[in-house]
Design goal:
The protein is α+β, with helices and mostly antiparallel strands and about 140 residues long. The chain has a single domain, classed as Roll (PH-domain like), CATH 2.30.29. It is built from 3 helices and 7 strands, in the order αβββββαββα. The chain has a 7-stranded antiparallel beta sheet. A hairpin with a 2-residue loop joins strand 2 and strand 3. The chain is globular and about 35 Å long. The termini are far apart.
Length: about 140
């Protein structure tokens, strides 16, 4: 328990690789979602920004160049995004699987969930096409 608490506290000051993305300017999608904590599995409401193949989250919607990210997922490393109602027993929930790790989210309703699934899914597909364009077959 103590190790988990120390690990979560270490996340507070952690800087996340934004990849030079101007997350504060003209996002592909933005809005409130609940995210399940990585260490303590409580659900917390966060402001999410999808931009240039990365999903960022913040404490509030007032995102500026000085805003500190609470986390970021590089969707180029993700395999899938799917509904997760059967896993979480929560309406509006979905999951993103990246690098062997699954993160869970909840949208306020099914329509908003479907919009996020579509937007994130499109990022994953674009990334897979970009990778396949650079692969040579002999």
């Amino acid at each position: 328990m103590l190790n988990g608490l120390l690990a979560s506290l270490s996340q507070v000051a952690k800087t996340h690789d934004t990849g030079g993305v101007e997350f504060w300017h003209q996002p592909d999608r933005a809005g409130w979602l609940y995210k399940q904590g990585d260490v303590i599995s409580t659900w917390r409401r966060r402001w999410f920004v999808l931009k240039d193949g990365r999903l960022f989250w913040f404490m509030n919607e007032n995102v500026t160049p000085e805003s500190k990210t609470r986390g970021v997922i590089d969707l180029r490393n993700c395999l899938s995004v799917a509904s997760a109602i059967e896993k979480t027993n929560k309406e509006g929930s979905f999951e993103i699987t990246c690098d062997g790790e699954t993160k869970f989210f909840i949208a306020d309703d099914e329509d908003i969930k479907d919009q996020w699934l579509s937007a994130i899914g499109n990022c994953i597909v674009r990334a897979s096409f970009a990778i396949s364009d650079h692969v040579s077959y002999y």
